[in-house]
Specification:
The complex is a heterodimer of chains A (277) and B (284). Helix content of chain A is 12%, strand content 23%. Chain A is built from three helices and 15 strands. The N terminus of chain A is likely disordered. Chain B has 284 residues and is mainly β. The chains are: A alpha+beta (277), B mainly beta (284). Chains A and B meet through α1, β1, α2, β3 and β11 of A and α1, β1, α2, α3 and β15 of B. β1 of chain A pairs antiparallel with β1 of chain B, so a sheet runs across the interface.
């Protein structure tokens, strides 16, 4: 004899309901709830460093690796020096000792739902920038080699695409002087540098260069809804990361010396040539 | 009956959790990469807004973090690139027993790592100074330098960047102001900051040309590199004996690393022809 349907249903439905509700109590172990971060990951300029054979042997024990996964070789930041090869300011306009084309490598961990890089990476060179001196645009340099509106492109990374115990790097790069040399002493947008030491700073960011923040008559920053108001009638502030808009940034510095070809030292160490045409 | 079903449906609907903002652990061992922090070249106006307590209060109603977004996210530190002597003058290799009176003041290098274990840092950051490192050297440890200013390959110290952000009261007007203000960026994931202080506990300056662990460096241009990594530096095992390879990041263990380079020139203060460019003095 079966129990009447009307009599058993409420209890069963309640039990079923509690069972289902109970099933969706998710243990909070290993779950992190984060606030709404619009730019969770940070852009980084990366470079290879020296490793020992023992360190590479240790990496070779990981499946798929013969040596350690590090960024490809390129001109590394710091002092740019080529042995027995000075960089010179040349009367003829071209330094035959100039650097060959080279890459700058960057990575940013932010990806979209499909695992594709989410942020566009931009960079700018600042030459002999003096902290606190404005506008920053006076120090913008070498846009002939490095346009400030050109996003970094996906780079061939080899095993560095997926290093040991790390997420994919989504390595990207810019190539400077792909079809020419990079004549630091003679060709800052067609202008030669003065002889001596020079400091070249590279600023990389994961947001567009910002427009200036508008100012109220009382000197305070202008607010537009839940953001600061921007003056889009002005030029963007190239070289300045938009930290107000959530940008992350990274910076590296190169230092190089330009010798004057016309000096006694220059006569001994320079390798200048005439610009043809 | 109907009430029971409705209650059940409401409870079920309530436990549909949107997956935005939830991340599951258990992926790669070293999710986030270490990086060295430098200050952005902020406009003077942004720096002024950062320190303006009244503006901060005025905009805080509309904007999360108020004028904190105009602030630097790291304490004052030395930028990478060229280091010149005090006043922009030359730094020098000095005669024995003397030191360079234009050597730069002590400074702190900051780094961050985004990996967390709960609210605590998941990784410890280790740092080392290298002099004129050769990027293709087979023996990177040979470049370890200035151990007297920074213990090589030792952990840094966790710091709270907000510690300098306390407002103070102006005695004359009674108004609150920020004498200094550092605000980590709101748009990014939290990351702990680590400090590496160059300090020999004996002087107020880092005598780069004369005191590489008691030795002077040669005249000419030099590259001082600081390397930070989020795993202990690599240890080679030979004949069951472990040997630290300081300056070699342990990439096999998933280490990430970052570097900052400082370039400086030492003029020969022991040479009569160039000594007049120098300011060498007796060691106190």
């Amino acid at each position: 004899m079966s129990t009447p349907r009307a009599a058993r249903s409420p209890r069963r439905v309640a039990l079923l309901g509690f069972g289902l509700v109970g099933a969706c109590i998710i243990p909070d172990t290993n779950i992190q709830v984060q606030p709404n971060r619009t730019n969770p990951g940070t852009v980084r300029i990366v470079q290879a460093v020296a490793l020992t054979s023992e360190a590479n042997d240790a990496c070779a024990e990981a499946p798929g690796f013969q040596v350690c996964p590090i960024p490809p070789d390129t001109v590394v930041p710091g002092l740019i020096e080529v042995e027995n090869q000075a960089f010179c300011v040349c009367e003829g306009g071209r330094d035959a000792n100039a650097l060959g084309g080279f890459d700058i490598f960057v990575e940013d961990p932010d990806v979209d739902e499909d695992g594709e890089p989410r942020d566009t990476l931009l960079g700018a060179f600042l030459l002999d920038a003096v902290e606190g001196q404005e506008p920053l645009s006076q120090f913008l340099a070498y846009t002939n080699y490095f346009p400030t509106n050109r996003p970094a492109q996906p780079a061939v990374a080899g095993t560095y695409e997926q290093p040991i115990e790390r997420p994919p790097t989504n390595l990207r790069s810019w190539t400077l002087g792909a079809d020419t040399t990079v004549d630091l002493c003679n060709d800052n947008n067609g202008t030669p540098l003065s002889p001596g030491l020079h400091s070249l700073r590279l600023v990389v960011t994961d947001r567009p260069w910002p427009f200036p923040v508008e100012e109220e008559p009382d000197g305070r920053p202008s607010v537009d809804g839940d953001q600061f108001a921007r003056d889009e009638q002005q030029e963007p502030l190239v070289g300045l990361p938009d930290t107000v808009g959530g940008a992350s940034f990274d910076v590296v510095d190169f230092v190089f010396r330009c010798v004057d070809e016309t000096t006694e030292e220059g006569a001994n160490v320079c390798n200048c040539e005439e610009v043809s045409g | 009956m109907k009430r029971c079903i409705a209650t059940t449906l409401i409870l079920l609907a309530a436990c549909i959790v949107p997956d935005r903002g939830i991340s599951f652990e258990g992926g790669p061992e070293n999710e986030g990469a270490v990086r060295i922090l430098q200050r952005a070249p902020l406009p003077e106006q942004w720096e002024a807004w950062c320190l303006d307590r009244d503006a901060d209060i005025a905009v805080s109603e509309a904007i999360d973090g108020g004028t904190g977004v105009f602030c630097h996210s790291v304490e004052e530190t030395r930028s990478g690139g060229l280091i010149r002597g005090e006043g922009g003058e030359a730094m020098c290799v000095c005669p024995a027993g003397q030191r360079d009176l234009r050597a730069p003041e002590l400074w702190t290098i900051y780094a961050e790592d985004p990996d967390l274990e709960g609210d605590d840092p998941a990784d410890v950051l280790y740092g080392v100074l290298l002099l004129d490192p050769d990027p293709v050297s087979n023996e990177p440890s040979a470049a370890v330098a200035y151990e007297n200013y920074l213990e090589p390959c030792a952990p840094g110290r966790v710091v709270d960047p907000l510690s300098v952000t306390e407002p103070m009261r102006d005695m004359a007007s009674g108004a609150l102001f920020y004498p200094s203000r550092v605000e980590p960026p709101l748009a990014r994931n939290d990351a702990w900051q680590w400090a590496f202080r160059l300090d020999d506990a004996a002087s107020a300056r880092v005598d780069l040309c004369n005191d590489d662990n008691g030795s002077s460096v040669g005249p000419g241009l030099h590259n001082l590199q600081f390397m930070v990594t989020d795993r202990p530096f690599f240890r080679a095992v030979r004949d069951d004996v472990e040997r630290l390879q300081c300056g070699v990041p342990d990439v096999a263990a998933g280490a990430t690393y970052a570097v900052i380079n400082y370039v400086f020139e030492c003029v020969d203060g022991t040479n009569e022809a160039t000594a007049d460019q120098c300011d060498c003095g007796e060691v106190e």
